[in-house]
Amino acid sequence: MQLDSFTLNQLVDELDVLVGTRLDRIGQPQKEEIHLSFRQGRDIQRLCISLRKDLPRVHLTAHHPDNLRTAPALCMALRRHLEGARLVNIHAPRWERYFTMAFSARNRLGDLIQLELIIELIPRASNLTLVDAGGKVLISSRYRVGAEYSFPPKQSGIDPEDLSLHQLTVSETDAVWKVLLSSIKGFGPLLAKEAVYRSGLPLHATSLQGRAQDVVQAVHALCRAPKAPAVYYDQDEEAVLWHATHLTHLGHYEQQTFEHAHQAADAFYYLYLSQQTTRNRKQRMRQVITRESRRRAKKRDRQASDWERAENADDFKLWGELLYAQSPHSVAGARQVEVMNYYTNRPLMIPLDPTLSVKDNAKRYFTRYEKALRTKKKARKALEQTQSELDYLDSLADILDRASSKSEVDEIWEEMQSEGLLGRDSSSPPGDKRRQPFGGVTFTSPQGHTVLLGKNHRQNEQLVRMARPDDVWLHARGVPGAHVLVRTPPAAGQAWPDEKTLLMAAELAAYHSKAAQAQHVEVDWTWAKHVRKPKHGRPGMVIYENEQTLRVTPESYAPSQ
Fold first, then answer.
1. pLDDT (average), residues 49-56
2. What DSSP string describes 71-92?
3. Would you tell me how many other CB atoms lie within 10 Å of the CB of residue 387?
4. Cβ distance 271 to 239 under 8 Å?
5. Which residues have CB under 8 Å from 80's CB, separation 6+?
6. How large is the average pLDDT for residues 373-400?
7. 445 vs 399, 486, 504, 507, CA distance in Å?
8. What is the pLDDT, as a whole number, of residue 435?
9. In angstroms, rounded to a whole number, what is the distance separating the alpha carbons of residues 116 and 149?
10. Considering only CA atoms, which of 183, 194, 186, 193 is closest in space to residue 158?
11. Which of 194, 394, 444, 524 has the greatest number of C-beta atoms within 10 Å?
12. With contact defined as beta carbons under 8 Å apart, do 401 and 513 qualify?
């Protein structure tokens, strides 16, 4: 969502609280994002300035992301000139998309100097420039150092506060809100649509329908409207947009109101960017899983071909035995010889190498037999390994499809990094996963027993590690899915587990598996003491024995509070 000038002016008005404070620290958590920390006594306020081409913005923030491991040149230069400086003024020209911050600082000689930081928040052309008292560029993300700085050209159009009836002309081809957007200063698409909606016109009306005066009055009213910042959410509870003014035409969205525009902006951008990161991660992980699955499927087919060829090893052994036992005479240069197969009492034609004797051909077949046996053994082991990797990738794909929260997606991302499927992020080394609390879902059976469900490989492994010998472990048979663990009650007797608890746990295991849409699913259950992770096994992979199988219909249950 792009900042319009109307909203930027409101944000900058609220930044007056920073005037008189000292710029304590400057950080750069991302390539196009600068954070300025202002201190007044013990009170610290953090200002986020983003120069992203698609999402330029400025707002106070309560979040403290880590800085880049190596500070970029822009950040280092700003620190050199501005750290310790005092903010003396902040100003945003009316209906423009840039603002200035005036600082009083000291140079290397200790002399007091005046500096001005100019932030242009224009989509695809954002810029941050520091100039001296004479307007010469000291630091800039776009302009040459030492050049004379010139402010962006003023926006063309009508001042919305001065809009009159005769200035409002609408063609029959464009929607009214698009005409407002192109002819009025400071209004973005949201405000233009809001003016049309408040005038009583249909949102996408292409004619004024005799309501020109109502449109003008709606524009004037929006200019004088009290602040009503809010974040708007869609039906999936994802942050869609925010604005400093109450937008009545978005009544179909859920909204969360705030006292200050900065609070709304901070809440929206944090959620929106987190959701964007999560979506991007899921997309990249799907691409990696698909690519690796295709590679391994081709590898499996080659290994299966090797296996099939190695299956002919017994023929080589038989031919060698028959050639040795019967020592048939062959014509020099013969390419085959007929012998009696005493296993079937039928004649058998054996191919020969015409350059070798019969006995040498027999030796050659025994050699080929021994080589085929070795190849067969290796091919079987390699084929099993490749199939195991394919099963793991299939399980990852299923877990990713069912992941619904940022934390679940992040856990899958970390797992794929640790397994070498994604590039490792050395800036955030993983902690000790064994000491982390169980992050899965907890349910309570009708009999009051605790049922735990792991939604990804890490949580599944946590269940295996934390299980007591007489806990009940369940998993959908033959398909990727969640592990389910039913904790042993203190007074468990010979009747444990009870039928209703076991049925509920099995239905949960079926519902949280790849077979969730099937009418009936087979679910294996066994005591936790019979479940173990194989040596060098992939995350989430287990071996179990002494299992029993239930046939259930997948069913969801509400988690325990």
1. 92
2. --HHHHHHHHHHTT-EEEEEE-
3. 15
4. yes
5. none
6. 86
7. 24, 9, 7, 12
8. 58
9. 11
10. 183
11. 194
12. no
Q: Which of 543, 555, 34, 11 is nearest to 258 (CA)?
A: 11
- Tokens 């099995």 — which residue? 506
Residue 433's pLDDT is what? 52
User: What CA–CA distance (Å, rounded) separates 96 from 8?
Assistant: 8
Q: Which two tokens stand for residue 34?
A: 């600068």
- Confidence class of residue 540 from pLDDT cuts 50, 70 and 90? confident
Alpha carbons 196 and 222: distance in angstroms, whole number: 11
Tens digit of each residue's pLDDT (9 = 90 or more) over 150-196:
999 888 889 999 998 888 877 777 899 999 998 999 899 999 999 99
- Provide Rg for the chain, Cα atoms: 36
The neighbouring-strand residues paired with 33 are 30, 50
- Cα torsion angle, 64, 68, 74, 76, sign: positive
pLDDT at 444: 93
Run of H or E residues at 402? helix 358-402
The residue among 143, 219, 128 whose CA lies nearest residue 179 is 219
63-115 pLDDT, tens digit each: 998 888 888 999 999 999 999 999 999 999 999 999 999 999 998 888 999 99
Give dist(CA 439, CA 517) in Å, integer: 25
Q: Which residue has the tokens 């947009």?
A: 241
Q: Using the predicted structure, report yes or no on whether residue 25 has a pLDDT greater than 60.
A: yes
pLDDT(309) > 80: no
Q: Residue 446 CA to chain centroid, in angstroms?
A: 36
Read off the amino acid at residue 55. L
Distance of CA 436 to the CA centre of its chain: 21
Q: Look at residues 368, 456, 374 and name the one whose alpha carbon lies nearest to residue 407.
A: 456
Tell which phi-psi region holds residue 492, choosing left (phi > 0), alpha (psi between -120 and 50) or beta: beta
Residue 127 has a CB neighbour count (10 Å cut-off) of 17
